[in-house]
Amino acid sequence: QGKKIEIIEANPRVCIEFEHEVEVMKDDDQACKWSFSFQSVIGFGTISELRDPNQKKQGLNHIMRHYTGKAWSFNPKAVEKTRVWKIDIEFLHGKRSG
Q1: pTM of the predicted structure, to 2 decimals
Q2: pLDDT range class, residue 2, cuts 50, 70, 90
Q3: Other C-beta atoms within 10 Å of 56: how many?
Q4: Whole-angstrom distance, CA of residue 46 vs CA of residue 8
Q5: Exposed/middle/buried for residue 85 (C-beta within 10 Å: 0-12, 13-18, 19+)
């Protein structure tokens, strides 16, 4: 429930962004010379909800494997109650600054 879900259901087109190595670039003399160095990737695509329990488990395992390096078993009742979303990325753009 919530505004985010309402927006997704009305328009599944999404934009996502990831940033890495963000640092403030300071200037001791001029405020307008402050900036940031960063690496970023912006992606555009379509979001959809996974409803099949096996697909939901697979999506949850992708997340858990990223943080723990291993596969997990999930309680079927918990999977049933959990909403899992997938983004089909159609376009990516990367940028490096600084």
Answers
A1: 0.75
A2: confident
A3: 20
A4: 9
A5: middle
